[in-house]
Specification:
mainly alpha, globular, DedA_domain, cell membrane, VTT_dom, transmembrane
Length: 222
Amino acid sequence: MSTKMAGALLTDLRSALSSPEELLEFLTRLLTEHGYLIVFLGAALDFCLPSSGDLVMLAGGWLANSTGDIHLIYVILIGALGAAVCDSTMYWTGRIGGYAFVNRLFRSRLLRRFLKPRHLRRVEKWFYLHGGKTVLFGRFTPGMRAAMPLSAGLSKMLYPRFLAFDLLAISLWAVSMGSIGFLFGEYWEVIITALQSYGRAVALLAAALVVALLIYRRQRRR
């Protein structure tokens, strides 16, 4: 892709983000022109483009229903493949790179305040006790989806165990997202609004849990 084409694509993307209708039109055009490649890339790049996997699966499902240019079963399978590639890549990045990699990755002074060795040890203990459930539910939790496989690798969670839970989670996610797009894609704006509300609710719940944990620990110290 030339620089000119990439610039035009970014311009179209910025315009598409202004409304759900324009976003659907943008994704539909990409899917029509490039087919399943967009489904794969959207799912595979979910770690750096939050919710891109959800969006391409929903749009792909709707396109399969409305035009028949692509088929739902292939949207589900190729989206699942992209997600699996993404998660395994992030897992091995954490597993091989280790804490030294994370320290290089998060060099800002602000992030170092929240990512200290003791925090990483807690992550490791958490995955030892609850790794399977975390991998399963992390796939459906905004923000955790990208951090979950990296954290699993950092904590040295056994890869076969990680892969088993990850593939189960990805299968459920791909089938549900593709099917929702296929069956209810005509209510695109409602779906996007619901996803945004869900993301905000999860973020608020996570923030509340962190505050509650901090208060609890402070009371214990006293």
